[in-house]
Automatic annotation (TrEMBL):
Lineage: Bacteria, Pseudomonadati, Pseudomonadota, Gammaproteobacteria, Pseudomonadales
EC number assigned by the record: 2.1.1.100, 2.1.1.334
InterPro entries per record: ICMT_MeTrfase (IPR007269), Metal_cation-efflux_comp (IPR052527)
GO biological process, one term: methylation
Protein name according to UniProt: Methyltransferase family protein
Pfam family name, one: ICMT
Transmembrane segments: 7-32, 38-59, 71-90, 102-120, 155-187
Natural source organism: Pseudomonas monachiensis
Length: 219
């Protein structure tokens, strides 16, 4: 079985599992789909999963890999599982929730925007986008388009998706989980930057000097 087929299978299964956790947390299909905003979030989740099947994302260690950074993968997995269930569950029991339907719709909007921002760079990078911190064969530095001013737009998209998901359930706990995601995310960013600096030297240093890591004008 080719890795692309494995990743496609994983994308479908993980997406369905994520939605199942949320539906379970909120109390079932009727409770979940009684909110138009959550219907939109569910559809957006499925669309993103299908779109990911047309990318060239991989798990190749390429020519060089920082294996010490692999710990972030299970960390993301644990936080992801908690995020799938807890925001919906706290919404159901009305624990540390805020706002009303307006907050839910804001969350749905952020979820869609974050999804687009997450996937766009994946299509731009093609085979160079790996789930591992690695330099791929023929790797070149991309500093134009969506990467002109922001070095990690896909990671920013991940954070926006997380905030959108939390707000769709009006969940303070969900926002805390988004904040916790920053720990492995920043560790991965620093690992990637060290590898790219070693690979591209002054070219990467010059790019860093004129761009932002994650949030324009802030970080």
């Amino acid at each position: 079985m080719k890795i692309s087929v494995k990743l496609a299978f994983f994308a479908v299964v993980s997406t369905l599992a994520y939605l199942t956790l949320a539906i379970w947390g909120l109390g079932g299909f009727a409770a979940f789909f009684s909110h138009g905003s959550l219907v939109v979030v569910a559809l957006a989740t499925l669309i993103m999963a299908v779109a990911s099947l047309f990318t060239e994302v991989n798990l190749s260690s390429g020519e060089r890999e920082d294996r010490d950074n692999r710990w972030v993968i299970p960390a993301f997995g644990v936080i992801g599982l908690l995020s799938g269930f807890l925001p919906a569950y706290t919404d159901r029991i009305d624990f540390w929730t805020f706002g009303g339907e307006g907050v839910r719709w804001l969350g749905a909007l952020l979820f869609i925007v974050g999804g687009a921002l997450r996937l766009w760079p994946v299509f731009v990078l093609g085979k160079r986008f790996s789930g591992l911190v690695a330099i791929q064969p023929g790797h070149r530095l991309v500093t134009e388009g969506i990467y002109r001013n922001l070095r990690n737009p896909s990671y920013l998209g991940m954070m926006v998706i997380g905030m959108g998901w939390a707000l769709a359930f009006r969940s303070g706990v969900g926002l805390i989980l988004v904040a916790l995601t920053l720990i492995p995310l920043i560790a991965r960013i620093h690992s990637e930057e060290a590898l790219l600096r070693a690979q591209f030297g002054s070219e990467y240093e010059a790019y860093c000097a004129r761009s932002w890591r994650l949030i324009p004008k802030i970080y």
